[in-house]
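WARN no homologs supplied; continuing
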Amino acid sequence: MNVRRLIPGTAVAAATALGLVTLSACSGESAAAGNTDKFDVVASFYPMAFLAEQIGGNHVHVTSLTQPGQEPHDLELSAQQRVQVEESDAVLYLKNLQPSVDDTVAQSEVKTKIDAARLTTLEEHGSEVGGHAAEHDDGHDHEEEGGKDPHIWLDPVKYAEVAEGVGKAFEKADPDHAADYKKNTAALVAKLEALDTEFRNGLAGTKTKVFITTHAAFGYLAERYGLTEEAISGLDPESEPSAARVKELEKMAKADGVTTVFYETLVSDKTAKTIAQDSGLKTDVLDPIEGITKKSRGTDYFAVQKANLKALQTALGTK
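OK structure emitted
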């Protein structure tokens, strides 16, 4: 759908060096972001791509900048991906989660820029985990810019608010298909509301309300359903916890009847398993759904969230 726009000279130079300027639809999806007869959307990572696909249906062509299995926080965009962003009809991203994407979007002339962080309210979580400042490796605390937690998609209510905003943006940018976008958005929001009810009912009567995770991705979900997340690290999944933090978690686990230390599929489970072993606790997966891989407990957002609910119910002990 997109008519080729003028691409900034730096992107052209970089792309030319890599032989990428002659991108065409037959090069495969990864190189076809701006060369289809559909509404071309570049999404920053899986939760954004999932929204675009669900809302856009057959009218959109979605390209994700983060590959399945890639840790989104560490993404560095290639010259080819910067060209993809420039040639798209819309870019859907979540500011302060992926600095490389933020920089590219800021420099891009894409007409429709949709920042999911502006479509709901962001809050502070994890910068002080369990009352203690989380430590970070070599200053990588980009997620905590302004102290705001970006993991809004793990709360079905906030994700639904984002979905509604994305739907309106699609309607405005591609008015020929506005009616379908409106209908698809309503259907997605209804599914998210049903998921919210499932979580609310499923976690209402648990024996304990405290759970331990490797990094503080579940603050919104915990807050929504009256739980307390204790993270080994802060918002940065790669940061190492201090010895004092580990001791504190072990003591807290005993006091609060915690049974399980959760780890995630895209980040090393070493620390979680060490703490669990030292404290005589079990380990299990709580998936922040930053990408779907063969290791994921489900093939899409809803299936993995239901697996998360089941894991939480088991760990917290349903009465």
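The first helix runs from residue 9 to 17.
OK
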